[in-house]
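User: Please predict the structure of the protein below. I'd like the answer in structure-token form so I can feed it into my own downstream comparison script.

Assistant: Understood. Taking the following sequence of 1008 residues as input:
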Amino acid sequence: MPGTFTIALMYVHLATHSAFSLQEGLLTPTDLVQAARACGMSALGLTDHHLLTGTIEFVKACQDAGIQPVIGLEIDLPQGPLQLLAMSVDGWSNLCRLSSVLALRDNPDAPCSLEMLFTYSKDLIALCENPHNLLDGFTGCLYVPLRNVSSAALLSAQARKLGLPTVIAHPVYYQTSEQARLQKTLSAIRLNQTVATIPQHALAPVDAWFMPPQMIEERFKDFPEALHTTADIAERCSFDLPLGNPQMPIVPLPEGVTVSQHLRDKATAGAKERYGEITPQIQTRLNHELDVIERMGFESIFLIVEDILNFARETGVPYSSRGSAASSLVAHCLGITSPDPLRLNLYFERFLNPARVTPPDIDTDLCSRRRDSVIQHVFDTYGVDKVAMVGTINRYRPRSALADVAKAYGLEPAKVRELANQLPHAWWARFDSEDGEVAPSPFAELRTTYPNYQSIFDDAEAILKLPRHLSMHPGGVIVAPGALTDLVPVMNSGGKGVVITQLNLNSAEALGLVKIDLLGIRGLTVVGDVAEFVQQSQPEQYATPLSVLDSTPSVDEATSNRIEKGETIGCFQIESPGMRATLREIHARTEDDIMAALALYRPGPLSGGLKDAFVRRFKGEEPVRHLHPALAPLLDETFGVILYQEQVLRIANELAGFSLAEADLLRRAMSHFDPGKKMQELERKFVSEAQARNGIPIETGERIWEMMAAFAGYGFPKAHAASYARIGWRSAWCKQYFPAEFMAAVLANWGGYYSQRVYLSEARRLGLKVRPPHVNYSQHQFSVQRLIDTEDRALFMGLGQVKELTQRTIGRIIQQAPFTSLDDFLSRVDPRNQEAEHLAKIGALDGFGKIPAILSRLQIGGWQQDQMSLFAWSDTSEEDWALQQKVDAQLEILGASLEAHPLELVLDKITGAISTIDAVERIGRRVTVAGVRQTSRRSRTAKGDMMLFLIIEDLQGTLDVILFPDVYRAAKSFLDANTPLLITGAMEMDRERGEPYLRADRVVSISK
């Protein structure tokens, strides 16, 4: 409540700028608060430029430090900058509204008009050096800031003439005076200039570092009243921002029906539809869940998600809610989730724990291509003023930091790319260890190679992890009960131009706003495309595309056989070499088996030996032993090992009498590896209650506890596994019964784990006819087409993959097809010469003549001038191109060859090699494999020698290969993308990643 903090009569900074003054400030909000605390300040103001992104982090840091936060914003007026400070929650709302309207303009950087400013001036204090035209808008709340000593006397005199008070407002942009140079670099980045040419007025003010209050007081000792005014303003701005109060969205309701009753009615109707008869067990569970949901006030969340997914179903958008939401019977009855929580023994408290007050997290996956229509439905239904996508903070990583800094230093674009390309795309920040070991710099190798660029590397390293820009969260949607900008500021995203929150997810949730995740995933896009292909070709059997997917049986012998054999390339979540090996190991045949495989095939179970124990017991090579007979009914389904998080809840509940809510809190505490007093109390309770209730000896109880605690590091939610297993099963069923449509969908969506060549090889292995793009058959992407004058079908690559083929030409081809001759095609489509040549070389004009004859005809030209009749031609007896020529042309123009895989051209020269799929089964043995490079990544050993991580592919899959320095030096001259390789070495297992790899000791090129 206001007045919680007592402001001492000393100077406090009111005009600090954090790193969320993008490319201006250098300090995080937390850094600023820590600096204030170190100086003994009792209050601190944050006035970031344009955005309020850092406000919630700032407020929380102030609360933790016992400092009064002063929440502000800096905007631009025609006469210069203006700092605005909120005096109340209403003031905060006006900051949000003003920041939002400014950010949503076509030119967000334009100065703010007085009309717009005065519209949102209530409960705001204004600091402005040129306040003449602000007098009427900020009565009693307008101050003249004194920022530096040189101009303080003049500004004080002007303020006295206007009857306005003055206040010291030293601007802060960085920690120490030495960082002024780095702030100059950031400013050059922001303004797309160089550090050599950027003008002084574009930089932060001189001496804009975090001066201690004693230094400020000494500098401005002639203005004591202005110094004391800082504390007065802090007092006026003392209020509590309401954090943690749920802001539940409002849903449309039938007249006279409450939101609770509406949810009960829908859940009951859904239960009857799902189960037919509502048994006492179902009714008891349903009542329990509904009671908890109503007590916590979360009814509207369920109803909104149900409405969203009803729209998805009605418009043919495949979806699947994942995560712990599948533990809810209410969600299942509303059609939000697919797995049956009763059959799978899923516990509601794993999803929504009444002992915690956070809103439920319902993550929904959607077909990525069709997702935007669902999101638009949310905006249309609940109001554009109440809905926004969640913003996310993109921070500097080594590549972006180095590229931006190098450009600011004036390096040529080619040199910038040369430097940045030597850094990995992925980067995980490492921290100094507790024993004082300094984390390695991502620029260490570059510093050695490029000694003249040390300043560039210094600056790039200094801005790592600072905010670079804001963008749209992958799927988070905020729905507010009223106008969103009353609570949170918004802006336009730089990508799709949709409205996003200026706050990131954590900050938005801290304000109590409800986030609904609508995520796009490729797996659902693939099965959605399969369904469309099938429905279009069989409309008499399937009324809608989704009816194809709805017809997926839960038991199917052929699909089970495919999964058990690991023939799942292209199938969601179950296609990697290691996962396919896991499916074979456990003889997976059902959705439940896929669930187990998904839980097993992760770093924790793999490195901890859990997977190996599970497989041995599954195969009967090791007996299933329980620490106590009471564990048997709880762990028999997973052969005595704890595989799912829900099993921890069940053990705590049934052995020690913990309520399911208490059991979930226990699971959460264990997952955080908290060995403190609370955990010790829980352990004592578990052990004593297990003895009292089930006669479990103390020592055995302690061992069970240790087993549960050890599991916590790699536990997997069964509910999440169930949701993903459903998609995996469905995609395997699609592959089994609609192989052409399935592979077309996989290829049209650019695959998944493997390269396009692997999927093309898989299509051929399935017996499909795979063809390059053809002007009479191809669409923009891969598609299945019936051949003219035949009942045969073929899988055609899309025209969109043809190098340098314009969208105009693609559109004309698709619209005008079919074509009867080369001249017919040329006259009606009118392609550019290069486009026509590329189409000829890849076989897209097959049937109109041999490639050499077509190319000769294209050299003549004339079709653009309507002179076709002057150039009669005929296909001569000239020999067509050889297979190698066709392969080379397709590799060049398409990026892949549909005539043959590079290995197929040298099969007669491959002896003694096994497939990658066989190699995976031979851990600990020497093997020889043949393949071509798919991707590679160089690295250095501790001694600084270069080595290579390589992924090769053959006709059946891929394999990781490691080339240590000696082997890499001998092979690097021929490791291009299309050279067939013969690699010999030892198969080993990466226990951390769970992936097998080949440790190469010999690599040779196979000549064609």
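That's the full token string. Residues 718-737 form the longest helix (20 residues).
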